[in-house]
Amino acid sequence: MESIAAFCEGKTTLARYSAKPVSPGRAAVSALLGLLVGAVNGLLGAGGGMLAVPLLTGAEGLPAKKAHATAIALILPLSAVSTLVYALTGGGSYAAEMPAAAGVFAGGIVGALLLSKAPAALLTELFYGVMMFAGIKMLFGA
């Protein structure tokens, strides 16, 4: 187990994953983009990751693989906050929660492992293909 001191010194895998320090103006832009992603996720119950990837590649200039990995890392806390708000306000139907959570957990592991091996161009094509499919499905019926 890597220590907190090693993390703070930038000597751990997770610390090396993090980006270089950003300027206060850049941090403000990132925070505003994060606010937009969080609002979309909270309002629609999903979609934060679909919005985060184009924002991370376009506005933040991240390569495709880093943008996908960063979006995945953003989804857990984003979803946890949305879930808490929904639970506190009486929203949601939780009858199938545990089986679905187990499937999402397993699928997340498989997807993250595939992400590290997939070519960036393929990820981009798959990502936009899924976005187009979701948009067409929403336009022409559930």
TrEMBL record:
Keyword field: Cell membrane, Membrane, Transmembrane, Transmembrane helix
Listed Pfam families: TauE
The keyword Transmembrane helix is annotated on this UniProt entry: yes
Topology term for the membrane: Multi-pass membrane protein
InterPro entries given in the database record: TM_pro_TauE-like, TSUP/Inactive_protease-like
Gene Ontology CC terms: plasma membrane
Main location (coarse class): membrane
Transmembrane regions listed in the UniProt entry: 31-57, 69-88, 94-115
Localisation: Cell membrane; Membrane
Family as reported in the entry's similarity comment: Belongs to the 4-toluene sulfonate uptake permease (TSUP) (TC 2.A.102) family.
PANTHER family in the record: MEMBRANE TRANSPORTER PROTEIN MJ0441-RELATED, MEMBRANE TRANSPORTER PROTEIN YJNA-RELATED
Entry protein name: Probable membrane transporter protein
Organism: Candidatus Limadaptatus stercoripullorum
Species classification: Bacteria, Bacillati, Bacillota, Clostridia, Eubacteriales
